[in-house]
Amino acid sequence: MKILRLGVGLLAAASLMTSCGNSGTKNKNGTEGALTKNAAEQVYIAPGEHDDYYAFISGGYSGNLLVYGLPSGRMFKEIPVFSQFPTSGYGYSEETKPMFNTSYGFIPWGDAHHPDISQTNGVMDGRWVFINENNTPRIARVDLTTFETAEIIEVPNSAGNHSSSFITENTEYVVAGTRFSVPVPQRDISIKDYKGEFKGALSFIGVDQETGRMEIDFQLLMPGFNYDLSHPGRDKSHGWFFFTTYNTEEANTLLEVNASQNDKDFIAAVNWKKIEEYVKNGGGKMMPAEYAHNVYDHHTHTATSTMKNEVRVIDPTEVPGAVYFLPTPKSPHGCDVSPDGEYIVGNGKLSTDLTVHSFTKMIDAIENKKFDGEAYGIPILNFDDIHAGSVKKAGLGPLHTEFDDKGNAYTTFFISSEVVKWELGTWEVKDRKPTYYSVGHLTIPGGNSREPDGKYMFAMNKITKDRYLPVGPELEHSAQLYDISGEKMELILDFPTHGEPHYAAAIKADVVKGNSLEIYDLEDNKHEYAIKSEGEARVERNGNEVHIYMSTIRSHFAPDNIEGIKVGDKVYFHVTNLEQDFDVPHGFAMIGQNNSELLIMPGQTKTTTWNPKKVGVWPFYCTDFCSALHQEMQGYIRVSPKDSDIELTWSLGDDE
Ligand code: K7E
Ligand code: CUA
Fold it and tell me: Name one GO cellular component term (predicted).
């Protein structure tokens, strides 16, 4: 890796010297001093100024979604999605625990890969971000008024929910595909019976246009390949969805060898409009399937979880014209569609060429029934009939492709650690720039829509090594921002990301920022334990359950002294933040709590529990520095023995 970097660095330096012909000090990227200064200006956002774009970068194995600004690379927020987050109490508070309910029980962690932003007419509209969980298959929806997770739906009959969560042109569907095929329904069979017995489910999850609510409309039960990535058709190919497959060999052991035998795997082309129609006419069949659907309501500030017990499944061979296989070399990873919907790029990670299929040619071949056999009853098209062109010897290990607004495509190459710019139609390579190091995905704002924005591109790298000050063996990953407005790409910024940044979705800030909420309206707080004023603060005992209706306002809790709690009680703190000013949260933490603190936004109610185990007088306090008298924001709870007859009392100030 080191050798490679030096090699490319020298090349870059050499080309700069010949093109500019001037001398100057060179930094370790091989760029010249004056250019470096220019790059700094390009990413500089003056204090108090705002960035031009939001970037939503997946947190990978952190399970979360990170919000960054571009071009500065500054991080604004970590949105907890699939993982417990003690910073806010997400997944620990009573209100948010139901978000982690699944058919496997409570799952406190997830592996998030591909965020995608909602669209209207093929253009990003900034209402919601969807993101997949790979390990225990789920799709989440983040609301971009609150920047909080609003919904999580489990995907049954799936494993390794990887070719997800991509959005159709009008957010009709968020689509999820299974990476690991599994027995459907799950049952106790030999792994050797893989071939024919295992299925790959492609799930089409409908999205309600008013509320954003998700429901699984249907699952297509495909042959037992690995469905790796996907993208929707758009514009002329709207109504289709494309999925890369590997392991069409259907191997179940040593896949690194056994799943690399076939010269070509497939891109599966799915005509979802046709299947939608079939379903509307009663097609498909309901099969028993257990999966959780969890919804957070920001009026009640509470999530509910519902267990579903059936799902509609479709056998692709029963819907003529619904699915075709496009032969594609060789174990493709990314599957990307050009802004006009004409080109489908298959990034064959074991091929030296990038393969591009033509949607027009595909339709033509289908209409003329030019098939080259079938797999499990699904017609296979002829490679030559659908092939638009190939980018020859573009690099090593192509992974993902994005597009600009000038007819160019940008592909990442993992093995040769570079981004290559090439032209749609001529398939000519126009530029290549090294990435430091081993790039995975890349993102262009609006890149997965009809209207990409050709100003910036950022690469998300798997290896960080020497890019930042060393921090021991475990490093954050690194992203690199390039200016792509000119003929040649220019590296202008490195910035660290948190977790593993598989993919990111980015959008013009103007589309989103005006909708962002500042506070929750206290009057509108419908939480069942909310109080609207200090006068309503109280403590109620019900057997050994104690409910404390507590409020916060600068700079005290009400009540702040409580007596009559006993060892063995289960104490619920229902804390309402009465503030109605922007950016005045209060926190709550109790000594010896076995869960996490709460961070409560203005107008919001959150609940945490505490099991007092020891007799004594125990403090609680506000964890967020909320005013000059924040350190005074505290209280005490007296805990008496189990059999004590101390009366339950509470107080604030002199009203004892
Ligand atoms: Cu990291 Cu999109 Cu999960 Cu490729 S995937 S790198
Ligand atoms: Cu409230 Cu500190």
Answer: cell envelope
Q: How far is the CA of 631 from the centre of ligand 2 (A)?
A: 7
What is the CATH number that goes with domain 53-513?
2.130.10.10
Handedness of CA 280, 181, 99, 476 (dihedral sign): negative
CATH number of 522-651: 2.60.40.420
Q: Residue 144: name the closest of 388, 534, 508 by CA.
A: 508
What pLDDT score does 11 carry? 37
CA atoms within 13 A on the CB side of 377: 12
Which atom of ligand 1 sits closest to the CA of residue 440?
6
Whole-angstrom distance, CA of residue 478 vs CA of residue 539: 50
Beta strands 198-207; 538-542: pairing state: unpaired
**C-alpha to C-alpha distance for 482 and 494, rounded to whole angstroms:** 9
Ligand 1 proximity of 441 Cβ (cutoff 6 Å): yes
Mark 105-127 as b/e (b = at least 16 C-beta within 10 Å): eebeebbbbbbbbbbeebebbbb
Residue with tokens 């090594």: 465
CB 581 within 8 A of CB 572: no
- pLDDT, residue 371, reads 97
Tokens of 442: 């890349």
Q: What pLDDT score does 60 carry?
A: 98
Q: Which helix (H) or strand (E) holds 8?
A: helix 2-20
**100 C-alpha vs ligand 1 centroid, how far in Å?**
24
Instruction: State whether the beta carbon of 624 lies less than 6 angstroms from ligand 2.
Output: yes
Burial of 350-388, coded b for 16+ CB within 10 Å and e otherwise, reads bbbbbbbbbbebbeebbeeeebeeeeeebbbbebebbbb
Ligand 2 neighbour 621 (Cβ under 6 A): no
**What are the per-10-residue average pLDDT scores of the chain (656 residues)?**
37 35 41 66 96 98 98 98 98 98 98 98 98 98 98 98 98 97 96 94 98 98 96 98 94 88 93 98 97 97 98 97 95 96 94 93 98 96 97 93 98 96 98 97 96 97 96 96 97 97 98 98 98 98 98 97 98 98 98 97 98 98 97 98 97 75
d(CA 248, CA 325): 11
Amino acid letter for position 89? G
3-state secondary structure 136-159: CCEEEEEECCCCEEEEEEECCCCC
What's the gap in Å between 113 CA and the centre of ligand 1?
7
Q: Is the peptide bond before 62 cis (omega within 30 degrees of 0)?
A: no
**Per the structure block, which two tokens stand in for 392?**
């020859």
Which-ligand-closest: CA of 347? 1
Q: What is the largest CA-CA distance in the chain?
A: 90
119 neighbors 125 (Cβ within 8 angstroms): yes
Q: Where are the domains of the chain?
A: 53-513, 522-651
Is residue 240 within 8 Å of 228, Cβ to Cβ?
no
pLDDT for res 655: 54
Helix (H, G, I), strand (E, B) or coil at 409: strand
DSSP state letter for 629: T
Cβ–Cβ < 8 Å for 207, 172: yes
Q: Is the CB of 177 under 6 A from ligand 1?
A: no
